[in-house]
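Exercise 7.
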Amino acid sequence: MKNSMLSIFSKIIFPLKKPQIIIVSGNNQDEVVFKVLNQYLKVKKIKDKLRASDIIRNEVLIFESQVGETESFEFLIDKSKAPVLLVTSGYGEIGKITRLAEVLPDSGFLLLNSDDEAIRGLIEKSAAESLTFGFQEKADFQVTDVKNNGGTNFKINYKVNIVPVRLERFISREEIYAILAAAVVGEALKINLVKVTEALKDY
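Solution. The predicted structure, written as tokens, is:
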């Protein structure tokens, strides 16, 4: 199997340590996820090759989907503890992302931007638990009441919880999506929504 992202040692050590992995599809969406998780867990973003030291030292490993081959990610998903696939956009990678959604186990999590019609159907292709986020009413994590007044205010609605978010600067719609993505990842990793918003106070 051709695995330029995985060294021989990492393939040996990874199944023994079984760290949590998060594979992110979508430009720059991993930055906010990392910022939140780094407040509470030992986290590493993998930008090219996965090294044995990364596996040993960290509880969570974050990958952008572009950094590795489908086969490498299939190996990591198979050997990981509750793998997470976060899809904010499938642009240019829908075939690869579909395959990864298909191999996610029922112990894993498929997290989707439900406002993107091109990726909404991935839920039907996966055995994993799914959570959605977006501006539309059917999203599990829905953003409402967005206001820009010397900063940005909005609310994140999840089940019976409504958590207000106040940021000191104006942020774009894409940045709100990134914050929602961090919120759903937090839920998958059992970090509650209040803690997620607290980690973003200086965002």
